[in-house]
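Design a sequence for this backbone.
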C-alpha cells in the first residue's frame, strides 16, 4: 500500500504517469521513520528535519504540509494495511511536481526495537576510496548517496558487514549502516556534526538521552581519529532501521558487546 499525496493506492500502476516520470528523473528528499506502539517515534524531530532539508534544497513547501497533516497521512497509510503492525518502517519521499511538491509514503512491517537481535558476528573496516566533506552540508542524507552506494558494494565484495567512512580530514564520520559510537572506559565517543555525519533523528535522541547521565557514561561529540577504534573496548552502530548493532571485529581487533548492548537496551526501554 502506498500513500501518494493523500490518495491510497495498491500499486505503482495507479500513480499518475507524469509523477512516475518524476520518480525516474527528479531529485528527491527521503526520510525513514519508525512507527511503534501506535505512534511515530520522535515525530516532531523527524518533521523539522524533513522541513529543514526541503528548505535547504530550495523546495517550495506547501502551506498544507503541517506536522498534523503529514502525521494524519501516515496514520491513514498504517490503518489501510491488512493488519495494523506493532512496528513498521515508514519511507517518505518528497519530489518536485507541478510547481510544488509531491510525496509518496510506504510502510514495511519490521520487528520492534526492543525485539531486534544484534548479529553475533559483525565485522567492518575503513572505506578509503572516497571521503566525506567535513561540513554541515554532509549532515543532509542526500549529499553523499554515491559514496554510500560504492561503499556498500565494496563491503559486499570484501566480505564485510559494514565500513566506516572517513572525512577529508581523515577522521571518522559514521558507518554505511548508521551512527558510530566508541566505548572507552567511562565515556562514549561519537563523531560531531562538524565531522560530516548525518544528523539522524535517532542519533539526536540517543545523544540527548546519554547527556542526561542516565547511562552513567560521559558522551563526547568530537572529531575522532581512526586509531581510536583500536583503543576502544566496544563499538556500536545505531540506526532507526536495525536498532543497536555491536561490532565484533575491526581488522585484527575483537570487541565485547555487553556494555554497548546494556546501554542501548536501557535507551530503548525508556521509549515505552
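Sequence:
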Amino acid at each position: 500500500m502506498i500513500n501518494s499525496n493523500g490518495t491510497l493506492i495498491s500499486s505503482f500502476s495507479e500513480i499518475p504517469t507524469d509523477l512516475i516520470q518524476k520518480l525516474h528523473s527528479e531529485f528527491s528528499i527521503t526520510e525513514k521513520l519508525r512507527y511503534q506502539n501506535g505512534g511515530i517515534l520522535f515525530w516532531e524531530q523527524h518533521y523539522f528535519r524533513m522541513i529543514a532539508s526541503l528548505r535547504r534544497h530550495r523546495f517550495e513547501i506547501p502551506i498544507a504540509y503541517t506536522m498534523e497533516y503529514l502525521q494524519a497521512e501516515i496514520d491513514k497509510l498504517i490503518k489501510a494495511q491488512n493488519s495494523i503492525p506493532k512496528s513498521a518502517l515508514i519511507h517518505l519521499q518528497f519530489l518536485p511536481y507541478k510547481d510544488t511538491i509531491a510525496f509518496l509514503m510506504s510502510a514495511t512491517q519490521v520487528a520492534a526495537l526492543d525485539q531486534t537481535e544484534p548479529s553475533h558476528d559483525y565485522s567492518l573496516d575503513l572505506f578509503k576510496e572516497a571521503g566525506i566533506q567535513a561540513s554541515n552540508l554532509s549532515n543532509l542524507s542526500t549529499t553523499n548517496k554515491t559514496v554510500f552506494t560504492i561503499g556498500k558494494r565494496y563491503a559486499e565484495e570484501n566480505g564485510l558487514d559494514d565500513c566506516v567512512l572517513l572525512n577529508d580530514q581523515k577522521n571518522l564520520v559514521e558507518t554505511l549502516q548508521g551512527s558510530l559510537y566508541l566505548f572507552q572506559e567511562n565515556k562514549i565517543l561519537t563523531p560531531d556534526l562538524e565531522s560530516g555525519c548525518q544528523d539522524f533523528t535517532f542519533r539526536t535522541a540517543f545523544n540527548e538521552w546519554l547527556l542526561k547521565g542516565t547511562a552513567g557514561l560521559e558522551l563526547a561529540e568530537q572529531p575522532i581519529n581512526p586509531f581510536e577504534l583500536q583503543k576502544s573496548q566496544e563499538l556500536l552502530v545505531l540506526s532507526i532501521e536495525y536498532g543497536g548493532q555491536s561490532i565484533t571485529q575491526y581488522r585484527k581487533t575483537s570487541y565485547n558487546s555487553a556494555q554497548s548492548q546494556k546501554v542501548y537496551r536501557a535507551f530503548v526501554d525508556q521509549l515505552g
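The chain has a mean pLDDT of 92.
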